[in-house]
Here is the input.
Amino acid sequence: MLLATVFILQQFTRWEVLTDVLGVLVFVAIAILLPRLKGITLYLTSAFVVGGVALMLVQKADADMWFGAAGMNATIVTLFAFAPLFGIPVRLPKYVAALQRFYETKVQSGVALFAGTQLLTQIMGAFINVGSISVVYHLAFVKPREAGMSKLLANALNRGFAGAILWSPYFAAMALITSALGVRWSELLPYLVVLTLLSFLVSMAIDFRKLLHPEGKVENRQSEDSTTPIEGVDGRSGFPIGLAVYLISAIAVILIMESFIDLPMVLITCMTAVTVPLIWCLFQGQSAIYREGIVNHIQVTLPSLKKEITLFLAAGFFSGSIGATGIGDYLPALLEPIPLPIWLSFSFMVVILMIISSLIGLHPIVLVTIFATGIDPAAVHMSANDYAILLLGGWALSNPISPASAVNNLLAGLFKKTVFELASPNYKYAACMAVLLLLFMLAIRL
Here is the structure.
C-alpha cells in the first residue's frame, strides 16, 4: 500500500525524488518477500533480480537508472492495491443467488452452458480477476455434469478469463501496456472488442462437436451448501439486472473519466475502484458489505498476492535493465534480412516467443514487460496502438497454455487435475488465435 501510495503521488506531482523513493521501496519489497517464495516463482524471481543486477553493473548504471528500472512495474502493484475493490458489489449475495438460479433454469444445452460459462467468466473476470474462476465454477456445476462436459467447462473458464485479459481496464496487462506505451484504453477498446468476439467464436468452433455429444459419467462437483437459498432474495430466474447495471456503470465511468481527465489510465482506475463500489453499496443499503470487503482485501487478498507482486516487480526491474542496454535500437537490423515487412516479422516473433515461453512455464508478463518498456514501436514500424493490441493479444492467447498461470493452478485444484492436463486442451485454441491475431494485425493496418 505504501508503494502504491508513493506511485500515485509521483504520478500526480511528477517530483523526481519520488521516483528514487519508489525504486527504494521496490528493492525493499523484493528483499522482504523473496525469502517467502517457493518453487518456480522463487527461481524465476531470483533469476530476474540477479540478471537485472548483472546488466546494470555491466553498464555501470548510475543511481537514477537503478531506481528507474526498479519502478518499472510499480503500475501493476498499484493496480493490485485498488482494482480488486471493484469486485465487492459483484459478490453481493442477491446477485450470486440470482446467477445461480439463472444457470439452473435458463442454461440447459451443452452449447449454451459452454458459451454462457465462457462469457460470464469474461465479464466477471474483468472486475474480480482470478476470483471469477471459483465463482463461475460453482455456478456452472450447480447441477451434476458429464465428465466430458466438465473438461469442456474447464476450457470455457480458461478461455473466458483470457478474453477478459484482452479488454479489461482493471487487469495488470492493460495497466502495464497502456502506461508503458502512453496509449488510451478508449482508443484500443473498439479493436479489442472485435478481437474478443473472434476469440469467443474460435473457442466455440474448436469444441463444438464435443459440446453436441458430451461423454462420460455424470459428476457432482457442487458442495452441499452451495445451493442453499439466500434469505430475502426473490425467485426470479433472469440475469440480475442490478448486477448488469453495475458492470456497465463501472465501464462507463472509466470511459467518461478518460475522455475528460488528463490522467494515466491506472490513476483513473484506482479512483473509480474506490468510489464506484462504495457509491453502489451505499445505494443498495449494503455499506456493511463494503466495509467487510475492504477488510478482506487488506487482510486476505493483498497478502495472498505476494507471489505475483514479487515476480512482477522483479520482472519489471529485469526488463528495465534490458531496456537500458538499448537492445531495441538493434532489433530492426536483425529483422531486415527476413523478406517480410519489419512489423510483420516482429509480430510473428512476439507471438511465437510468447507461446514458447508460456509452454515452458514463464509468465506472460515477463516478455510483455520487456517488449513494452524496451522496444520503441516506431523502431519496428508500428504505431503505439497497434503495438498495444499485439501485446495484449499475445498475453491473452498464451495465458491458457501456461502451467504457471494463476488460472490453470486454480483450475487444477478445483478439477483435481494437473496444470498440464488443463493447459493441453487449449493448445489448438492458442495456435488458432496466434494465426488470427496476425491476420487481425494485418487487417487493421490496411
The longest helix spans residues 185-212.
